[in-house]
Design a protein that fits this description.
Distance between the termini of chain B: 50 Å
Membrane topology (chain A): Multi-pass membrane protein
Largest sheet of chain B: none
Order of helices and strands of chain A: HHHHHHHHHHHHHH
Number of strands of chain B: 0
Shape of chain B: globular
Oligomer: heterodimer
CATH class of the largest domain in chain B: Mainly Alpha
Strand content of chain A: under 5%
CATH architecture of the largest domain in chain A: Orthogonal Bundle
Number of helices of chain A: 14
Structural class of chain A: mainly alpha
Helix content of chain B: over 70%
Number of strands of chain A: 0
Structural class of chain B: mainly alpha
CATH superfamily of the largest domain in chain B: MetI-like
InterPro entries (chain A): ABC_transporter_permease, MetI-like, MetI-like_sf
Number of domains of chain B: 2
CATH superfamily of the largest domain in chain A: MetI-like
CATH topology of the largest domain in chain B: MetI-like fold
Subcellular location (chain A): Cell membrane
Strand content of chain B: under 5%
Helix content of chain A: 55-70%
Shape of chain A: globular
Family (chain A): Belongs to the binding-protein-dependent transport system permease family.
Pfam family, one (chain A): BPD_transp_1
Largest interface: A-B, 101 and 94 residues
Distance between the termini of chain A: 20 Å
CATH topology of the largest domain in chain A: MetI-like fold
CATH class of the largest domain in chain A: Mainly Alpha
């Protein structure tokens, strides 16, 4: 990072050699961990994805080439779980817009901001399992909080949140926005505080109104934060699992709530199709890689830096 | 003359702004109440009687207040066992993994060696790799090693260090001038001693924050424990409360489920409330960097 002068490779002094050896020793364990628990499993997954392997039979003898991938291509449940995963991503823009608006509200001279910020952040640090259990209770058809409120306000019985194929998706999106909103607020607030005040003052003198300032100063200048939130939420969004497993019964009515990772888990650990599961894992990794790469490629178009 | 007019208009603006600020405050407060309301409802439910819970009408205040569910939860061997298992994972991982991570961060930030940037980028790239991709091979590996009847699948990988912690600590160390390193070298201080006696004290605040976040991650982890822990006696707390949920929901014992979940959330909540400034700052930095 800091442009140090490179030493010529052949003439390393004894001291530099000692430094290098010690440094390698210092980073040895994390690097070994990377090889053992990341690099090796990935290679293994790629290899196992080409076998009708169940963990009980031989991995090599059941080699089937790309058959698993061909089967996945014709697998309705896979496409259904992929579509559901993508539908859940609707929560990302909702969370980002709410997060930015709330952060702008907090970026004013208002008393009690720190307490408010904490209140919004509490769901983030809560255990995902515990709050999934809680929300399953909130969404309970007969006695839950939501349907109690709906009955009180309208006199009608609310929807079967977790049992209905449509409403279960709405329910999970609401839950995910609630769980993640605090992070967006904190990140946007930090981004907003980085914008020099005189930008707004200059714009005011030029006669810009509130919307114009928002559109031409705030939005472009927090775009690096938007980019960061987008990338991390997309990567996270493709890995949704816990809330589906805790809140729904076996992936919901007609598998309507299941995500790709849920399907992968189901195949590998409930059906014992480890080879097929590995093929799903490889596809998941490729999807995430492509989305991240696309984002970085498009970054220059809309992400502005402060200079 | 015109300055007087300006003053008046600016006073008007500031008054207008004050009202605006109040409106914003009320809106923010309403939103915040909506955010914490489910958690309050969770605590309230844990004190309610079954009759009140299943009455079907909207009630928030428990009447009468029932605390028996908490003692009932704490008397369950499985629940206590879950707490101990979670601690048995967290303590060695935080001590050993915290040490290996900070040592590596020091190596990456302050020492010169060939392949430094390539190695660092390789490590960093693993943050983007979903756990779901490696979980099947890891499961097979741990089964072959005979670890799935122990807590080792959750402990051992953590002891090799944590990449995001290495990243944050490295960032923190880069901010410390290199002069210290040179001075230590001139004094004949070895690299390990330099790390332990000079740099460790300088990064202990950052390390503490990162370890807290890591603790929260370990305590709240569910996917890895549910895959790797085959025998019930090893279940960590999150796996236990999830099994409570499926078991007691059939009996409609929501008070007990909520009480168990509330207890499971206490450690991370307590840490967050005590150290919230440090934790929030560290999250905020991650977006700007």
């Amino acid at each position: 990072m800091s442009g140090k002068t490179k030493q010529p490779k052949h003439k390393m002094s004894a001291m530099a050699k000692k430094e290098e050896r010690t440094a390698w020793l210092f980073i040895a364990l994390p690097f070994l961990g990377f090889l053992l628990f990341m690099a090796y499993p990935i290679c293994f997954a790629v290899f196992a994805s080409m076998s009708k392997w169940t963990g009980m039979n031989s991995l090599v003898d059941n080699f089937c080439g790309l058959q698993n991938y061909i089967n996945i291509f014709h697998d309705e449940k896979f496409w259904k779980s992929l579509l559901t995963t993508i539908i859940y991503l609707i929560g990302i823009p909702i969370g980002m817009i709410l997060g930015l608006l709330l952060a702008m509200g907090m970026n004013r001279k208002i008393p009690g901001i720190r307490l408010l910020r904490t209140m919004y952040y509490v769901p983030v640090v809560s255990s995902l399992v515990a709050v999934s259990i809680l929300w399953a209770w909130v969404y309970n058809y007969d006695y839950g909080l939501f349907n109690s409120i709906i009955k009180l306000l309208t006199g009608h019985h609310g929807p079967n949140w977790l049992g209905d194929e449509f409403w279960v998706k709405v329910a999970l999106i609401i839950f995910m926005v609630w769980k993640g909103l605090g992070t967006s607020i904190i990140l946007y607030l930090a981004g907003l505080q980085n914008i020099p005040r005189n930008y707004y003052e200059a714009a005011s003198i030029d006669g810009a109104n509130g919307w114009q300032k928002f559109r031409h100063i705030t939005v472009p200048l927090v775009s690096p934060v938007t980019f960061y939130i987008l990338i991390t939420s997309l990567i996270g969004g493709f890995q949704v699992f816990v809330e589906v497993q805790v809140m729904t019964n076996k992936g919901g009515t007609n598998y309507s709530a299941a995500t790709v990772v849920y399907y992968l888990y189901d195949k590998a650990f409930s059906n014992g199709q480890l080879g097929y599961g590995c093929a799903l894992a490889v596809i998941l990794a490729i999807i995430i890689f492509i989305i991240t790469a696309l984002n970085f490629a498009g970054q220059d178009r809309w992400v502005k830096t402060m200079d | 003359m015109s300055s007087k007019k300006d003053l008046a208009s600016s006073r008007l603006v500031s008054k207008k702004e004050k009202i605006f600020n109040w409106i914003i405050f009320v809106l923010l407060l309403l939103g915040a109440v909506v955010m914490v309301f489910p958690l309050i409802y969770m605590i309230a439910t844990s004190f309610m009687t079954k009759n009140q819970i299943l009455s079907g009408t909207l009630t928030i205040l428990p009447d009468p207040i029932l605390i028996g569910k908490y003692s009932e939860v704490l008397k369950k061997g499985q629940f206590i066992n879950g707490i101990f298992n979670s601690l048995k994972v967290a303590i060695p991982v935080l001590i050993i993994g915290g040490f290996t991570s900070s040592l590596a961060a020091f190596g990456f930030a302050k020492m010169r060696f060939r392949g430094k940037n390539a190695l660092f980028l390789a490590l960093l790239a693993t943050i983007m790799i979903p756990f779901a991709v490696v979980m099947i091979p890891q499961y097979v590996m741990f089964t072959k090693l005979g670890w799935t009847n122990t807590l080792l699948p959750l402990i051992i990988p953590g002891c090799f260090g944590n990449v995001s912690i290495i990243f944050f600590l490295r960032q923190n160390l880069i901010g410390i001038p290199d002069d210290l390193m040179e001075a230590a070298k001139l004094d004949g201080c070895g690299y390990f001693r330099t790390f332990l006696q000079i740099f460790m004290p300088l990064m202990k605040g950052a390390l503490a924050t990162q370890l807290m976040l890591w603790f929260m991650g370990i305590w709240n982890d569910y996917l890895a424990p549910t895959i790797f822990l085959r025998s019930e006696k090893n279940w960590t707390l999150q796996v236990v409360i999830r099994s409570f949920n499926s078991y007691y929901a059939i009996q409609s014992d929501y008070a007990l489920i909520m009480a168990a979940s509330v207890i499971a959330m206490i450690p991370t909540m307590a840490l967050f409330f005590i150290f919230q400034r440090m934790i929030i700052e560290s999250i905020a930095i991650s977006g700007i960097k």
